[in-house]
Design goal:
This protein is α+β, with helices and mostly antiparallel strands. The chain has a domain of about 300 residues: Orthogonal Bundle (Cytochrome p450), CATH 1.10.630. It is built from 20 helices and 12 strands. The strands form 4 sheets. Strands 1-2-8-5-3 form a 5-stranded mixed sheet. Helix 9 runs antiparallel to helix 10, helix 10 runs parallel beside helix 13 and helix 11 runs antiparallel to helix 12. The protein starts with a helix and ends with a helix. The structure holds protoporphyrin IX containing FE (HEM). This is Abscisic acid 8'-hydroxylase 2. InterPro entries: Cyt_P450 (IPR001128), Cyt_P450_CS (IPR017972), Cyt_P450_E_grp-I (IPR002401), Cyt_P450_sf (IPR036396). Belongs to the cytochrome P450 family.
Length: about 500
Amino acid sequence: MHYFFFSPLSASFLFFLLLLLLLLLGTAVVFFSLLPFRFLQWRHHQHKRLPLPPGSMGWPYIGETLKLYTENPNSFFSNRQKRHGDVFKTSILGCPCVMVSSPEAIKVVLVTRAHLFKPTYPSSKERMIGPEAIFFHEGPYHSRLKKLVQASFLPSAIRGSVSAIEQIVLKFLPTWNNGVVNTLQEMKKYTFDVAILSAFGHKLDLEMEGIKHLYRSLEKGYNSMPINLPGTPFRRAMKARQLLNETFRRLIAKRRGSSKQGGGLLGILLGAKDQHLNHLSDSQIADNIIGVIFAAHDTTASVLTWLLKYLHDNRDLLEAVTREQEGIKASISEANRGLTWDDTRRMPLTGRVIQETLRTASILSFTFREAVEDVEFEGYYIPKGWKVLPLFRSIHYCADFFPQPEKFDPSRFEVPPKPNTFLPFGNGVHACPGSELAKLEMFVLLHHLTTSYRWKVVGGEDGIQYVPFPVPQRGLPIEVTPRKANAE
Ligand code: HEM
């Protein structure tokens, strides 16, 4: 019996068993350690087996760029949507793009899987606004900034500015009296003054003209070809950016040197500390002040221009809005006070006119994102690096959500729009923090304009101009007269 265990046969058999065991163990270790890798490979193959979205990539390199620029951008998108559906591919300026225009798919890009789609801008634009500005970031730096910017534009923060905004309106409306003015240019002056007020907490009398002039150059260059040669708008804009940066850094240093950090967005940015008690640097603050003022004024001015156009073209609506505003005016005069935040909450019809203007004008027709990895999306494969564009305007003009979409009809907002169908201010982590301020500017202006003046569009043609936002032709020249004189 003893020998059995030590016989040469049984020893080699045991050795064989041991080897087999080791082999199995080794295979298992290798198999399990490679499992995540195999899984990723499998996922990759799965992605690759999914089709790319339908659509045409056009010519090599130029793609469909020429078609986009020669056709009206709205019909470019809607024609393709009709042909290919709510998710389709194209190629613009050498970039493969996926256009997305259903509420559910847009929600995926902007909200539920936003981490897979980062905001993307040409590097020339990033340099011009400032690389540390909120728009160009994600993750902890973005959320830290977002909290700060949001804090200074929340209703609770801006309700105290109503009287200062009203003073701006009361100062510049009489300058329109009895003459022809360019609505867009006048609205830009108004929204610029409000943007400076919100950024610094007060007016900047001394530096204002210089800053305005620099912003004008910045805007021209922002929308031009990025050719950095002497005399080009791009070169002039980069110079303007440098001077703006110097001006704002002087203002920041002055505030840092004083005992109070002061109001406005600047006050909030100066007072901010992270969990390690670190402050934001001067360049971070300057880039964000430059960026927020930039984002705040042209957008709001374009929507205000459309508001005047739509009210001019819909006389019954103008009279109904005027009646609503007359009611507010009567209670203000009785109490012998100025307009307040609470008054602006008692303007339901005016509010719906503003909503319908935001929908119809859709000044931001779409926004840009980029896939940060290969993504499986709505049954399609989107390769890493492809641009993904949620098409806000297509949703706003979809008859399923807004029947007779071409009609200007504020009553459609008596019922709240379906989720993710009304996106003038975007959605998700990068949604606009200035939406309440923009609407407040519209309420205050409409209150005084409708109760005291009437306006007539001069020229009368109905076209659209892209500067870069869509606005009425020639910036809507109007002739303004005092309302009483007009009514007589
Ligand atoms: C009617 C006027 C306005 C419209 C239609 C508008 C629209 C938008 C939209 C659609 C976005 C999101 C872009 C994206 O997701 O890629 C956005 C972002 C932004 N807007 Fe506005 N905006 C307006 C006014 C303002 C104002 C008054 C401010 C000033 C406070 C402002 C500051 C910003 C900032 C800082 C962002 C970037 C937010 C981020 O990246 O987290 N906007 N805006």
